[in-house]
Each structure stands twice: as C-alpha cells, then as structure tokens.
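Practice problem 4.
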C-alpha cells in the first residue's frame, strides 16, 4: 500500500465525521464531502468530490450505497455518483469501504480496495454498539421488561453472539436460532437455549421478541403469523431475514435496526472505523 497521509471521506453519516476527526488528531490530513445539511458539532474541512485526486485515500460510507449507483449520503444536498467519484479519484489510490459489489469494485479498478467488513477487528468492535442498540429497542418497544422476556436471536455470528449475551445479562430468556449443528452446540455450551432453523421450524409460543442478524430470508409467512403481536428487530443488511412489509402486514411490530452503531453511538462507531483504517495501513506497510 502506498504511503497514506490524507483521506477524503465521501458521504455517509455522522460516524464518518467522527472517524475523520479521529484521524486528524492522529496527524493525518482529512476532509469530507456530502455533508452540506449537517449542522452538528463535529468540525471538518469541506472538500468537493471533484478534488478527490488530491487525497491519498477515499473512505466510503457503510453501507456504501442504497440504490447501487450513488453514494449513501443522507446529509448531501445532491447525489454523489459512485462512478464519478472513481473517475475523480484516479488510479493508484486506496479505497476504504465495505461490502462492495463486483460491479462497484470494477469502477475502482487500479486502486487498492480495503474491505472493513472483512476484518475481524472491525466486526468484533462493531458488534458491541449494535447489541446496545438492540437492547435499547427492546427497552423502548416491548410492553414488558426485558428481564424474563423470551427473545429469539437468529444467527450466532459476532453480532448475534454480542446481542444474545447482552440480552441474557439483562435477564432475558434468550434462544439462539441457527442452521449449523456446530454453531448450535457452541451456543448451548455458552448457556443459551437453541433452535434449529435449517428444517421446517416453528417459533416458540412464548417468544415476545425476535432479532435477526442473518442477511438471508429465514422467516416465512407462517413464521410471521406466529410472531403476530411480537417485536421484530431486523439487524441484518438486505435482503433481511424476511419481507418487512409482509411482517408489518401480519401484525408484527417491525423495526429496521440496520446501521445501529451510527445511530446510537456515532462517536464510538467513528473511532472503530478510524482504528480499522489505521490497523489496515500498519499491516500492509
């Protein structure tokens, strides 16, 4: 990887600004574009995406895009084309992002692509604020206390495990749903009840909340009927664990809970992004 001294943060939410601020305090030059509508307290240098070529690296939002063509930039007054940014950046630079599709990666051909989501350190650290966000949703939306509530957590990866452990500490009766026998055995070894969701399964009768962390359609219309009146938090990325509109139509209190770190703890989430970038640079130097 080439020597990196400057970063342009293109689009994204507030955690991007906190990440830029963290890197600035570490001695790097940082700037951000696509935040015209931001009126918060984080100070940053304003730069246009047309000047991307002036920077050694560009940092893309997590998630990168909502429509497959433009950068996810909720604070921007105009759309930022991914293709245009790649052309402004030029070749030989570093691109930090995550979950970039093959078509998008092709636009940055000739650049060093660094996938934050593929890193163990990022996933582990990012799971913690996600778990806290799910706990906050449970406290806000459930008509009963979390203590004593039966909660189904689908998936036992880094995020599912963090959510399950936190809810368990809060007194919830947590059931882990997974497909692989080895994963179920591991969950049981850590003190969780388990549910095999590989075959045709039923939602346990006393469940008051379900949390999905698996980006795959797991819950059918049958399951949505069984969850009627329950709380469902979708913490995975698209295509999600079920059809969210059908879930709402079935009487399930459905909350889209993706991107929680940036919503509930943007400063911490920004520091995680900055630390991941620095770790990547150190390992590739």
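Answer key:
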């Amino acid at each position: 990887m080439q020597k990196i001294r400057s970063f342009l943060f293109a689009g994204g939410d507030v955690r991007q600004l906190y990440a830029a601020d963290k890197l600035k305090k570490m001695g790097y030059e940082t700037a951000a574009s696509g935040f015209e509508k931001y009126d918060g307290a984080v100070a940053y240098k304003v730069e246009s995406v047309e000047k991307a070529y002036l920077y050694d690296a560009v940092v893309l939002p997590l998630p990168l895009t909502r429509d497959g063509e433009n950068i996810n930039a909720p604070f921007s007054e105009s759309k930022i084309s991914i293709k245009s940014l790649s052309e402004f950046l030029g070749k030989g630079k570093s691109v930090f992002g995550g979950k970039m599709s093959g078509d998008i990666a092709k636009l940055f051909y000739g650049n060093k692509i660094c996938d934050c989501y593929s890193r163990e350190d990022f996933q582990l650290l990012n799971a913690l604020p996600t778990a806290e966000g799910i706990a906050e949703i449970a406290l806000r939306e459930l008509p009963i206390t979390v203590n004593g509530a039966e909660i189904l957590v689908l998936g036992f990866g880094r995020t599912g495990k963090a959510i399950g452990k936190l809810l368990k500490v809060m007194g919830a009766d947590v059931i882990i749903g997974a497909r692989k026998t080895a994963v179920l055995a591991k969950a049981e070894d850590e003190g969780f009840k388990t549910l095999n969701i590989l075959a045709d399964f039923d939602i346990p009768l006393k469940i008051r909340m379900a949390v999905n962390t698996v980006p795959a359609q797991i819950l059918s219309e049958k399951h949505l009927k069984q969850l009627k009146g329950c709380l469902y938090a979708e913490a995975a990325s698209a295509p999600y664990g079920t059809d969210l509109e059908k879930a709402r139509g079935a009487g399930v209190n459905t909350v889209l809970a993706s991107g929680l770190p940036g919503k509930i703890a943007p400063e911490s989430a920004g520091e995680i992004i900055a630390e991941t970038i620095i770790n990547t640079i150190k390992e590739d130097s």
